[in-house]
Amino acid sequence: xxxxxxxxxxxxxxxxxxxxxxxxxxxxxxxxxxxxxxxxxxxxxxxxxxxxxxxxxxxxxxxxxxxxxxxxxxxxxxxxxxxxxxxxxxxxxxxxxxxxxxxxxxxxxxxxxxxxxxxxxxxxxxxxxxxxxxxxxxxxxxxxxxxxxxxxxxxxxxxxxxxxxxxxxxxxxxxxxxxxxxxxxxxxxxxxxxxxxxxxxxxxxxxxxxxxxxxxxxxxxxxxxxxxxxxxxxxxxxxxxxxxxx
Length: 246
Hints:
Elements (H helix, E strand, L loop, with lengths): L2 H45 L2 H4 L18 E3 L6 E2 L20 E3 L1 H18 L2 E6 L4 H10 L20 E7 L28 H15 L3 E4 L2 E7 L14
Parallel strand pairs: 2-4
Antiparallel strand pairs: 1-3, 4-5, 5-7, 6-7
């Protein structure tokens, strides 16, 4: 074999060996780098706070609550009917005062109201329909802005029992929710709505007495000019809290 041919074969062998070694080392380095990247990725995901792992995650403390724990809501699940008039135009102002109709009361008042309802159901098969309950002072202001007359609306600066969560406007209904005859509609202003007016049909007087007796048994008291209005006799501050509409 000639000398030039031997030198060529030797050079080719060395070149092939170097190339193979380079590829092997590159594969090992790449594999190690990939393994390190995966390990760091898992560690980072584990150590990230919950709110950094996703753009939409919320913890319980991050979610604001609009419900005031000083009030209890009365709903139809309590087997009480709701017709919150000031959430509609079907009231004496012909204006919507509440953005949505809900019935909230102070917890003790709500409990006593439910007890009165249970007594009526047990003895007569009747229930209650709520026209108005707690009324926020901003709503009282809206009411006053429409009818600034203290004979019909309590001035907001003074505040009413409704603004304290202690008053209810309501009537009696049968098991199907049909209102009993009380002589006048809700928010009727005149002698026919007065509780001391005895010049009314016997049925009306009987129904008013049933409502009054059931509420009085739970420490509510009425007023002379409105058969539908009752207040619970306890102290509570005026409140500006407005319930959520959802």
